[in-house]
Task: inverse folding
């Protein structure tokens, strides 16, 4: 495309745009210059843009709105800009054809947006900026998915993208540990960059729950679960070429320690269960013991007391965040509190709006803004139709992941195993937090979905197991 335009005209247009933006405000000139550079690189090398998107999209959605462009997050700018470059220039290609997963994803996105607009019209809801962002959230995830899928169709490109995704988790883990132990100005920087109200301040004491570069510890924890399961699946795949073990082991350990720093018990349990599932299917319990033992020793040595306070607070009902009407309950306080919120505030609204949902907002009768569950969130936003669309999407993910497990490509088999495990653990994780509509977790998940192979040459029934590598003769056949 650039070859069709004279070079001098491109230079003049870029200089004029940068100068005009600088005359308004110097920072706008800098942003414009960066945007132009990215645009030119993207037109010349769309794969480079896709790799940058894989690296940055999952770790930047926690940064506050307006940090670079008013009312927008950096991740939203990256996704929208990359999609505009890749999707509009990709054309019709074999890897661009839609499959069942694409159809169910599009249905989920369309119902979220369509039902939200319908309920806003029917019930007279005001479409605030926050509500609009909730309606458009799935749109950005779908654009992320299609962009990566179109730009990186080849096996070696998908393998490189997986390595980029894992390597980009290293600074997240480092920032999390620095925040946890209050090293340097890390805590102050995180609050300034994320506008978080849950991130620990420099003088925080008691139970410390690290948020990393995210606004909430749940966002960080959800992202880390995906990273850990992917890394472990690759560790249990002897012939994979994504990353060498000497890199995978420290990356897995760092992500595990960072997950412990969040003190988020549901994701800690999900991570351990997921690793256990992978180890059982891989038939490598000894490696599992070494992995869990190393992470436990490194993590609990410095973070053990903090996690112990968190667990005891749950079991003894000493957490001040939750106020229950009935103090006696066999459930942990945070779960009992959620049940109370669902029963008293959200379920009455859901029962009245089962067909279309209430919309992206919350009624005046609800005093606790968070639904604390993905399933309640879906019923609130789009009723039973949206919940059924999500279930269909999960089934499509499961089927595509199971097919990938039979691929002759080692990274595809590891990716398939990762996603089937994620589907299992996220089913329970979503009971007490809407990770699928949050930040971090969905960004990493949609990237993994985009990296699934378009077509899988089955290796037969025996190839369904993760650790049964295809022989050279099988691959030639």
Result:
């Amino acid at each position: 495309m650039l070859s069709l335009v004279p070079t001098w005209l491109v230079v003049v247009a870029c200089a004029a745009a940068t100068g005009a933006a600088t005359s308004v405000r110097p920072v706008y000139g800098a942003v414009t210059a960066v945007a132009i550079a990215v645009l030119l690189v993207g037109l010349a090398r769309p794969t480079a843009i896709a790799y940058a998107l894989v690296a940055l999209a999952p770790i930047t959605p926690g940064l506050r709105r307006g940090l670079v462009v008013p009312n927008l997050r950096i991740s939203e700018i990256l996704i929208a800009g990359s999609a505009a470059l890749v999707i509009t220039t990709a054309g019709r290609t074999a890897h661009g054809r839609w499959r069942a997963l694409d159809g169910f994803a599009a249905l989920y996105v369309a119902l979220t947006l369509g039902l939200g607009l319908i309920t806003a019209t029917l019930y007279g809801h005001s479409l605030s900026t926050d509500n609009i962002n909730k309606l458009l959230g799935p749109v950005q995830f779908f654009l992320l998915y299609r962009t990566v899928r179109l730009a990186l169709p080849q096996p070696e490109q998908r393998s490189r993208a997986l390595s980029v995704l894992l390597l980009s988790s290293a600074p997240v883990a480092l920032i999390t540990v620095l925040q946890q132990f209050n090293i340097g100005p890390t805590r102050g920087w995180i609050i300034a960059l994320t506008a978080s109200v849950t991130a620990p301040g420099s003088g925080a004491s008691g139970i410390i729950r690290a948020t990393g570069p995210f606004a909430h510890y749940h966002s960080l924890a959800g992202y880390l679960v995906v990273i850990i399961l992917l890394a472990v699946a690759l560790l249990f795949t002897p012939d994979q070429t994504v990353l060498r073990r000497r890199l995978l082991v420290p990356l897995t350990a760092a992500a595990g320690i960072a997950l412990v720093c969040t003190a988020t018990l549901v994701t800690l349990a999900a991570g351990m269960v997921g690793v256990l599932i992978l180890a059982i299917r891989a038939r490598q319990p000894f490696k599992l013991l070494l992995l869990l033992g190393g992470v436990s020793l490194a993590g609990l040595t410095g973070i053990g007391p903090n996690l112990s306070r968190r667990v005891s607070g749950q079991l003894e009902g000493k957490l001040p965040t939750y106020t229950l009407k009935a103090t006696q309950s066999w459930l942990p306080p945070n779960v009992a509190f959620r049940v109370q919120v669902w029963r008293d505030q959200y379920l009455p609204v859901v029962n009245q709006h089962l067909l279309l949902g209430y919309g992206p907002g919350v009624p005046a009768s609800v005093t606790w803004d968070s639904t604390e569950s993905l399933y309640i969130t879906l019923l609130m936003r789009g009723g039973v139709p949206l919940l059924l669309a999500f279930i269909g999407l999960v089934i499509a993910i499961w089927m595509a992941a199971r097919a990938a497990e039979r691929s002759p490509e080692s990274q595809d088999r590891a990716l398939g195993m990762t996603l089937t495990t994620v589907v299992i653990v996220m089913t329970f994780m979503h009971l007490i937090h809407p990770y699928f509509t949050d930040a971090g977790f969905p960004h990493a998940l949609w990237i993994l979905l985009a990296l699934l192979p378009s077509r899988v040459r089955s290796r037969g029934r025996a190839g369904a197991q993760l650790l049964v590598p295809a022989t050279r003769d099988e691959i030639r056949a």
About this structure: Confidence is low (pLDDT under 50) at residues 1-5, 460-477. The first helix runs from residue 7 to 24. The chain has 18 helices and no strands. Residues 98-471 form one domain.
